[in-house]
Amino acid sequence: MNCKKDIDELLAKYFVRETLTGEEQKEVDEWISSHREEFEKMKMLVDAPLQDTSSIEFDVKGAWQKIDPELKEGGWTKFSRRRVNMLVSLAASVLVVLGIGLYYWQYFTSEDEVTRYANNGTKMQEIMLPDSSEIILYPSTKLTYQQAPRGRQVTLEGKAFFRVKKMHGLPFGVKTEKLQVEVLGTSFLVDEGKENGGSVFVKTGKVKVSSADKEVIIEKNEKAELHNGQLETGIIENPSSFFKAFHSVMNFENTPMEKVVKEIEKNTGILIELEEGIENNLVTTRIEGENGQDIVTELAFLCGCKYETLEDGKHYRLYSAK
Q: What distance in Å separates the CA atoms of residue 110 and residue 104, rounded to the nearest whole number?
């Protein structure tokens, strides 16, 4: 912990129940363990119900009349070290709680400007949102985007393909007239579907789809569709052909292998681990499509490495041929 400001910010996040990283949670747990009494005081203050203070009266003049004689007589010396420490501790607790309140207010009320997009043409249009998520808008599609501390929200009218940029602790939601989609980082197609109520098709990752009365979670190559008001799930037949229009084309020129595999994971969901010493190998190539076997074979050839399959189509490892 570098300074008290750090733990105050982490405690604020803790008390408003914002997701903490593993390292942040560890720091909070360690602080709580060594400051149990102070933590309990804070918790009591945070959990205390809010009251209407308009009816509370406080006699300021009378209070000063009581304390003023002691101050004139050097009354400060009468305060024991324990009492001073208690006052300082209480003041610190109040400041932290005030900080938590301010953080809570900012967290739940701060909103950024709405960004609007529309594809009024006859061809698909590719756009990039302010958070660097990539969207392909179908013709006659409208989309609004809003980002706030509590999350990213898209409202969709029409049909669009999403490659969502991962942002830790900041969920991404897509809302249509009848469906709500929630995701942290993946690629998927959403069709508002005026006729059947809407559909969601997942290319990589995992999403949660909600209708008026049902909630489902679907993963890579799965779909969720509304039929007669009922949300149903299924498997995408021939996903390679279905998502053909959204296949990634990645060009690399003298790019470190570590950056190459990160870009591949971002665009395809395919994870490639690197043995130590391979990450700095420079790669120049063009990768098209999302066949994991083809991709890892190409990279192994370029770096003179070998590879092993940890999960077919999803997870590989490159290691030295020596």
A: 10
Task: Match 């681990």 to its residue by tokens.
Answer: 273
Global confidence as pTM = 0.49
In single-letter form, the type of residue at position 54 comes to S
Whether 40 and 142 share a structural domain: no
Q: Comparing C-alpha atoms, which of 258, 188, 195, 197 is closest to residue 223?
A: 188
As a whole number of angstroms, the distance between CA 61 and CA 24 comes to 46
Domain boundary among 57, 79, 109: 109
> Which pLDDT value is given to residue 107?
39
Domain count, the chain: 3
Strand partners, 226: 231
Instruction: Indicate if 144 and 188 belong to the same structural domain.
Output: yes
User: Quick check: 276 and 307 in contact, CB under 8 A?
Assistant: no
Confidence at residue 152, expressed as pLDDT on a 0 to 100 scale: 92
pLDDT at 46: 64
Long-range contacts (CB closer than 8 Å, 24 or more residues apart) made by 293-302: 295/264, 295/268, 295/270, 296/270, 296/272, 299/257, 299/260, 299/261, 299/272
pLDDT band at 193 (very low <50, low <70, confident <90, very high): confident
The domain boundary residue, chosen from 242, 272, 306: 242
> What SS3 class is residue 72?
helix
| H or E element that contains 12 | helix 4-15
Q: Which domain holds residue 186?
A: 115-242
